[in-house]
């Protein structure tokens, strides 16, 4: 698959972002069927036997979809690998990736280099999840086909740069596939990101509240009830800056105004089954949480995103036409 092939298959240039303890096979398949990239992080499936079952479910679900709708309406799917040195399960994850061959693989919390040989071996694309320009340059040097630029306002592990500043700076040295994520939760924001130079948008928070997500019903309702003012960013819980829902922290006896000042050691070992239990009731969201108005099926969310995205394009064209007309009038006066 080439980036051109990928973009041609999408109803709207969006990736349902891989979200810890939220993205699973049902959400991935529903997203691909609706015409956006469906993604999930492999650490969601523990132990390794569960990951293989999930990969089987995704590939079987997409095979069924191809029997029910045209092939060119089904978007590619994506696996998200943690390549941090603390992830002792990475070799096993890569073995299964090589077997089930997701067209896209996004690496996170480490260099993309460990995944490149395997994924390029079957013709897939490797993208690197990055939060700074320094990491973006390192990922490009390592051979990544694309970058997932995580910006300020993103849910879960977040960045510090504005989406517009990040994309603009990256485009000075990289012409490959660029995904941008950070507080973009509607089609208007997607259009703005594409106009700024991105190819795709990572959208996570909007899909936490999808019917097909693994999120608890109370989590989904908390998103419906929350706004951007209910988000706090801290590295005090996981060791990496992340965006948390204040009501969730309070419900777990954590004061969002008194989060630990010293980050704990970072550990992202996918073989640690007990670790998932610790985070099931502490919930994250991005600053775009205000766009979540109800719990909806993925197909309905994508329809709304597409309508907004097309409306934004039409608005831009009208503004552009008026601007061009004004310039023509000024030129005729000077003549």
Automatic annotation (TrEMBL):
Report the InterPro entries cross-referenced here.
Answer: Aldolase_TIM (IPR013785), NMO (IPR004136)
The cross-references to Gene3D superfamilies, in alphabetical order and at most eight, read: Aldolase class I
Q: Does the keyword Repeat apply?
A: no
Report the GO molecular function annotations: nitronate monooxygenase activity
Q: Which Pfam families match?
A: NMO (PF03060)
Q: What parts of the sequence cross the membrane?
A: none
UniProt keywords, alphabetically: Flavoprotein, FMN, Monooxygenase, Oxidoreductase
Extract the ranges annotated as region (Disordered): 254-273
Keyword Lipoprotein in annotation: no
Name the SUPFAM superfamilies for this protein: Inosine monophosphate dehydrogenase (IMPDH)
Family indicated by similarity? Belongs to the nitronate monooxygenase family. NMO class I subfamily.
Protein's name according to its UniProt entry? Nitronate monooxygenase
- Which species is this record about? Ramlibacter rhizophilus
Its lineage reads:
Bacteria, Pseudomonadati, Pseudomonadota, Betaproteobacteria, Burkholderiales
């Amino acid at each position: 698959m080439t980036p051109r092939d990928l973009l041609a298959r999408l109803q709207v240039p969006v990736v349902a972002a891989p979200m810890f303890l939220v993205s699973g096979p049902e959400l991935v398949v529903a997203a691909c069927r609706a015409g956006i990239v469906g993604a999930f992080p492999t650490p969601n499936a523990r132990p390794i036997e569960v990951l293989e079952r999930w990969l089987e479910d995704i590939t079987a679900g997409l095979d069924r979809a191809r029997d029910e709708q045209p092939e060119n309406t089904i978007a590619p799917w994506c696996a998200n690998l943690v390549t941090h040195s603390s992830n002792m399960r990475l070799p096993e994850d890569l073995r299964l990736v090589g077997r089930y061959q997701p067209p896209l693989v996004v690496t996170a919390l480490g260099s993309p280099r460990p995944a490149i040989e395997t994924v390029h071996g079957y013709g897939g694309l490797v993208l690197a999840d990055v939060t700074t320009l320094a990491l973006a340059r390192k990922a490009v040097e390592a051979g990544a086909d694309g970058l997932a630029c995580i910006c300020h306002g993103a849910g879960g592990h977040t960045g510090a740069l504005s989406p517009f500043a990040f994309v603009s700076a990256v485009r000075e040295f990289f012409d490959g596939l660029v995904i941008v994520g950070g507080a973009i939760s509607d089609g208007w924001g997607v259009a703005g990101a594409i106009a700024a130079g991105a190819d795709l948008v990572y959208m996570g928070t909007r899909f936490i509240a999808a019917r097909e997500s693994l999120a608890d019903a109370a989590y989904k309702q908390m998103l419906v009830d929350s706004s951007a003012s209910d988000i706090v960013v801290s590295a005090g819980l996981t060791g990496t800056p992340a965006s948390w829902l204040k009501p969730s922290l309070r419900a777990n006896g954590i004061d969002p105004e008194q989060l630990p000042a010293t980050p704990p050691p970072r550990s992202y070992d996918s073989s640690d089954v007990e670790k998932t239990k610790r985070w099931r009731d502490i919930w994250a969201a991005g600053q775009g949480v205000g766009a979540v108005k109800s719990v909806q099926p993925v197909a309905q969310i994508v329809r709304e995103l597409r309508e907004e995205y097309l409306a934004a394009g039409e608005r831009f064209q009208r503004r552009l036409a008026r601007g061009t007309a004004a310039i023509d009038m000024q030129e005729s006066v000077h003549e």
